[in-house]
Amino acid sequence: MYITPDFKEKFQVYPLSIHELSDRIVCMAKGKSEDVIFVFGPDSDFCGTEKSYEGTEYKECPLTRENAEALKKLFPFTRPVPVLKTHKTLGLGDRLGRATAGHIKLMKDYPYIRPVFAQQSMRELNLTGRRYEDVIADVVFAVFRENYTLGYGADGDHLKTEEDIRYALDCGCTMITLDCSDHINNDAASYDDATVNQKYQADAELESRYIGKTFTLKNGMSFTFPENEFRRIVLIYKEAIDFAVQIYNDIFRGNQNADLEISIDETLTPTTPLQHFFVANELKNAGALPVTMAPRFCGEFQKGIDYIGDIHQFEKEFEVHANIAKEFGYKISVHSGSDKFATFSIVGKYTDGIYHVKTAGTNWLEAMRVVAQEDPALYREVHKFALSVLPEARKYYHISADEKTIPDVDTLSDRELPDLMSRDNSRQVIHITYGLILQAKNPDGTSRFRDRLYQVWHDYEETYHKNLYNHIRRHITELGN
Ligand code: ZN
């Protein structure tokens, strides 16, 4: 059995997608508005339409969840696996389900970096109208199509409840980022001493572990807990630690199928090194250390733009955070890592190249750059819509962008439009409105932009993948690779 050159050319079969088993061939081809799967030979696992071309019988199968399951069953390399324990890992959340094939081309050039191709939070799922089944299915198709056999992870990102975690794991996620922010008492960070003392409930056992003690790391760095500071830290973090320990015990103890990341980054104030040490030490005492931890660093990690803040202070504090992580044996995870070029050499240096860095939104911005390049009229329409719904989007995402400084798109030439995706203010506006853009409807209920955007991304996929390759590679090289 084999596929004729004539067939390959006529149907635009992806060369790397041709996979032969003893009794059948499965491959993928570029359909009109979406890729399709072709199966030659026994096809009981796939749903599709029987077809024939010049005497060859085959089945044409759409990209459905069921057909992703069929691929996973026949080709184990397409299933997500736990990867977080590898030294270098990179989260590459693909909100559109169209970026992964581009990411794969890049990751093949860095085989020692393990990718987490699927990475979505509940917020992202709600804003894009997808479910974890869809997110993972899209990655399965891309991994099969590009024959990426090195193994990738799937992150149920920023999950806050046991129910959501179990749902993500059932869908095949191999990593969970536990978001403890609902259990962190932000207010306590700014209590005066009297309020701290009033709210604090004595805990003799806990106090005996910290008050008057000095903790020295292997590298000589030491931590002491002044009594009042200790009480404040307990007020801020104790409940979050208890929550993390409970989730660890219920779901992750002895679990070989998924890695746990603990995130304390979605808070109003940065995690001080002393606070980080306390959280780590308490997790260790409970035997509940995660594989990665995401503190909130000083300065601002806003969406889609470079670091804002005092980079020297960041470097000083990051060194301590990295040393704490090394001491306890987990990796530092950097969230909102898209475009944080000022920080990457610091991250690479002080972690000794052992890190997890998450990017997501920048992949969407590169997709919108393709629209600006290839369909200026559609870009202008989307851009104006984004500005009109900005107040709504600001409820979900904090950005400092001043939209008044963005030039009127009607006064820009077509050639000037892509440059908007290189300017901070327009980047942020397009960045945070992705959900509203993708879900916008016409009065008759049809999609206002989504279908047209997806058609552009399908037609100009190579442009998109080239943009992604260059942009994400810059992240990788500045991390020291
Ligand atoms: Zn985060």
Describe this structure in words.
The chain is an alpha/beta fold and 481 residues long. The chain is built from 19 helices and 15 strands. A hairpin with a 6-residue loop joins strand 2 and strand 3. Helix 3 (100-107) crosses helix 19, helix 11 (311-328) runs parallel beside helix 12 (341-350) and helix 13 (361-374) packs across helix 19 (461-478). The longest helix has 26 residues, at 227-252. The mean pLDDT is 96.
Q: What does this entry show, briefly?
A:
The protein has about 475 residues and is α/β, with parallel strands linked by helices.
Keywords:
481 residues, alpha/beta, TIM Barrel, 15 strands, 15% strand, binds zinc ion
Topology:
Layout (H helix, E strand, L loop, with lengths): L4 H7 L7 E2 L4 E5 L6 E5 L8 E5 L2 E6 L3 H10 L13 E5 L7 H8 L6 E8 H7 L3 H14 L7 E7 L2 H9 L4 E5 L13 H7 L4 H7 L3 E3 L5 E3 L2 H26 L6 E5 L9 H13 L6 E3 L16 H18 L2 E4 L6 H10 L4 E5 L1 H14 L1 H13 L1 H4 L30 H9 L1 H6 L10 H10 L1 H18 L3
Parallel strand pairs: 6-7, 6-15, 7-8, 8-9, 9-12, 12-13, 13-14, 14-15
Antiparallel strand pairs: 1-2, 2-3, 3-5, 4-5, 10-11
The structure holds zinc ion (ZN).
Uncertain stretches = none
Helix content: 40-55%
Bound molecules: zinc ion
Architecture of the largest domain, CATH level 2? Alpha-Beta Barrel
